[in-house]
Amino acid sequence: MKYKSQAEGIAIIFMALLLSAVLFSIFKAIFSASEGWKDLEYYGQLLSMKSSEKIFLGNSIDGPCISSSISTDAVILIIPSNLNGKNETLQVEKTSVPVNSCLSFSSIGLNYDEGKSVLVLTKYGNAFYWNSSLGATAVKMQ
Amino acid sequence: MTRGLSNIVAGLAMALVIALVSSAVIPQLIERGINVERGVFCSYSSVSVFAFVTGSGYQVIAYNYGPKDVEKAYIIYNGSSGLEVYDIGKIPSGSYSLISIYGMPLSYRDSCGSSIELKVVNGK
């Protein structure tokens, strides 16, 4: 009788441990899948915004400025015409790009002069290139 | 006494069966979970990468616009001793890294498995 209860006790503890390990793994897999679906949804939205995003360059009172077709965050790079020159450096700033107003480069610490090019990398995964010969709309690179 | 022993054997046998089933099922569940994570987080490239030629070499910008950090990122470039690897390190979500490389940058790779051929924006 004593051995029987001991055996039952050992078996129950063993089974409880294994069952908890199995349940833990199942819940972990379910959690991972739900996280994955959330991200899939995010990327779906990102792709839809990506296709409708456009970047415009214009002139404001403070000089050359940038605006977007949808509110976005972007990394803006000002590329000198001759980066090989000793005094020429690449300028980079991350900022929010507005829809209904034009954000001047000077207000975010960027110095744009005639002949320089602009590369805009947005939070929707687009890359736009612009120079003064391209008019008001930047060209999508990717 | 005999009945007690048979119960011990039965209990251990049952535990052994559960252990065997679990050992087969648990790794598959974990692997499936990891695959789901990898499949979603890494099958989409969430990094914009471009190179620029400068007086002393090249500069490369890598901008992570995705919702997750890129844990390890590298630039493969043509250095003085052939193909070399520049370790950018971690690129947090929404951040960029601007690095200088003394050699022609060829491609970008990261821990998610993304591989992007580099475009030199101001190249001839």
Offer a concise description of the structure.
With about 140 residues, chain A is of the alpha+beta class.
Low-pLDDT residue intervals, each spanning 5 or more residues of chain B: none
Radius of gyration of chain B: 25 Å
Return the string of H and E elements of chain B: HEEEEEEE
Rounded mean pLDDT score of chain A: 86
Helical region count of chain A?
1
Query: Radius of gyration of chain A in whole Å, from Cα?
Result: 28 Å
Determine the strand fraction of chain B and express it as a percent band.
35-45%
Distance linking N and C termini of chain A: 76 Å
Order of helices and strands of chain A: HEEEEEEEE
Keywords (chain A): Membrane, Transmembrane, Transmembrane helix
Describe it.
- The complex is a heterodimer of chains A (142) and B (124).
- Chain A is an alpha+beta fold and 142 residues long.
- Chain A has 2 domains: 3-46; 51-139.
- Helix content of chain A is 36%, strand content 29%.
- Chain A has a 5-stranded antiparallel beta sheet, with no helix packed on it. Chain A has a 3-stranded antiparallel beta sheet with strand order 1-2-5, with no helix packed on it.
- In chain A, strand 6 and strand 7 form a beta hairpin.
- The longest helix of chain A is centred in the N-terminal third of the chain and has 51 residues, at 2-52.
- The mean pLDDT of chain A is 86.
- In chain B, strand 6 and strand 7 (115-117) form a beta hairpin.
- Chain B starts with a helix and ends in a 7-residue tail after the last strand.
- The chains are: A alpha+beta (142), B alpha+beta (124).
- At the A-B interface, helix 1, strand 3 and strand 6 of A face helix 1, strand 1 and strand 2 of B.
- Chain A: Keywords: Membrane, Transmembrane, Transmembrane helix.
- Chain A: The chain crosses the membrane at residues 12-31.
